[in-house]
Inverse folding.
């Protein structure tokens, strides 16, 4: 069981990749974060930061302006929330390396994910990114430089030749790049503590960790998002031999599938409870476990579509932070969260099996309700196209031969009409709700990924069914009144 002293910093991760939040929405939710028990924000801007000069190519069309960043920092300050920027500096650099201007920095020419640590401009570019972010965050005390999931490492010609010439391993290539980036921050901003993700150290042997040269430069943030932990048993001894201070990272949303649109609160609560148990087991190995980042991923990477949106995950965030802050969660605590989020019906800990749309009123609750309604509609849609009538009696072979029995097709058409009406209703709600939470473009993407393909498939099926059932379109419309 943990308490506030065990995890003094409780950070809410804002993943803004390609979907920045409106300032008016942040103005509403940041006070809630503080109420939930958060002490800070871990902000992953990616391409939404206003990079400029020779980095302006990185900046997305919908990126924040410099004044927007200042407004976000003021909102955080007003709510007593520390801001920690997160800038990827090794892996997950698709938002940089996809541009022709920076393509020469790729470890593998055709893959824009990882930076080549042997290219003479690699450290220069990421340090310029860091400098521009810090300039707009002059009060920052911690800076996260990412460095997770560097899947392409030591593979290009420059790296392989260097490894042979200098007798380096892939681990040593990784460590040197991280050291160079961290040393830049230490040299120019000596009051800033550098944080990295832990996973590139996670399976290294003790002897390798002892010689990484990072102990006085960075603090690892150990991330794990599963309810049941599968971290290596040696991890804590290995890390504590070099790093006196560490952080941990759980998840409140965005860790159960790249296309998932609603949040399983129970799954994430179990993950956070597992972290609380683990902290009690390992905390004596370290001088400090400085805090926890409760991550809320919005995309799995730069090229992935959107997964769970922030409003959908807010009840999960509130419950997870309450558990972290208090070390336990009772019925009264859940009731308090329900009151804060104005739930008039019980909070569904597993909305996948909840038959009703919850009644609630919090910033973005319309999107929370809409995405649950979408999942119900999607379930009906998937069930329709899995029916025997669809897969057997409306098989493409039969359709091409016009060999169908109306007794099987008419009920399918009726169900398709009803489901299509539900999708059209959702489509209208999206237009009315997204604009109050996200900048322009997010609504269009969500519709194109989750609504439009289903509408198009339904319409294609209905056209096909009508052509088989009725020779006269006018007759079709009249007949469908009876089908429904």
């Amino acid at each position: 069981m943990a308490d506030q002293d065990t995890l003094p910093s409780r950070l809410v991760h804002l993943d803004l990749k390609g979907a920045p939040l409106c300032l008016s929405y942040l103005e509403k939710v940041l006070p809630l974060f503080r109420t939930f028990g958060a002490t800070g924000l871990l902000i992953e801007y990616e391409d939404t930061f206003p990079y400029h000069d020779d980095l302006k190519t990185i900046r997305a069309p919908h990126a924040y302006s410099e004044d927007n960043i200042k407004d976000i920092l003021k909102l955080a300050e007003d709510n007593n929330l520390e801001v920690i920027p997160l800038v990827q500096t090794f892996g997950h650099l698709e938002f940089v390396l996809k541009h022709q201007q920076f393509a020469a920095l790729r470890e593998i020419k055709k893959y824009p994910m990882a930076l080549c640590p042997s290219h003479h401009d690699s450290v220069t570019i990421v340090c310029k990114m860091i400098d521009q972010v810090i300039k707009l965050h002059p009060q920052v005390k911690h800076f996260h430089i990412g460095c997770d999931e560097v899947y392409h490492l030591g593979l290009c010609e420059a790296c392989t030749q260097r490894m042979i010439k200098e007798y380096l391993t892939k681990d040593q290539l990784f460590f040197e790049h991280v050291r160079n980036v961290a040393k830049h921050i230490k040299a120019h901003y000596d009051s800033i503590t550098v944080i990295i993700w832990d996973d590139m150290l996670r399976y290294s042997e003790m002897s390798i960790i002892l010689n990484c040269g990072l102990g006085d430069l960075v603090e690892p943030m150990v991330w794990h998002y599963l309810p049941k932990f599968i971290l290596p048993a040696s991890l804590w001894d290995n890390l504590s031999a070099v790093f006196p201070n560490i952080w941990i990272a759980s998840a409140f949303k965005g860790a159960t599938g790249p296309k998932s649109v609603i949040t399983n609160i129970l799954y994430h609560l179990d993950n956070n409870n597992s972290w609380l148990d683990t902290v009690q087991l390992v905390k004596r190995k370290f001088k400090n476990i400085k805090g926890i980042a409760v991550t809320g991923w919005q995309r799995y990477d730069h090229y992935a579509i959107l997964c769970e949106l922030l409003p959908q995950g807010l009840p999960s965030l509130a419950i997870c932070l309450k558990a972290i802050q208090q070390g336990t969660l009772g019925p009264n605590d859940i009731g308090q969260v329900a009151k804060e989020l104005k739930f008039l019906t019980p909070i569904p800990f597993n909305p996948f099996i909840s038959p009703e749309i919850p009644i609630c009123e919090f910033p973005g609750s319309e999107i929370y309700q809409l995405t649950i309604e979408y999942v119900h509609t999607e379930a009906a849609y998937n069930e329709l196209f899995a029916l025997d009538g669809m897969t057997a009696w409306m098989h493409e072979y039969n359709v091409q031969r016009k060999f169908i029995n109306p007794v099987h097709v008419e009920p399918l058409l009726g169900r398709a009409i009803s489901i299509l009406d539900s999708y059209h209703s959702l489509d209208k709600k999206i237009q009315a709700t997204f604009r109050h939470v996200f900048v322009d473009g997010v609504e269009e993407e969500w519709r194109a990924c989750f609504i439009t393909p289903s509408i198009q498939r339904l319409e294609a099926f209905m056209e096909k069914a009508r052509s088989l059932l009725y020779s006269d379109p006018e007759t079709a419309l009249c007949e469908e009144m009876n089908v429904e």
About this structure: The chain has 17 helices and ten strands. The first strand starts at residue 9 and ends at 15. The mean pLDDT is 94. The CA atoms of residues 3 and 327 lie 5 Å apart.
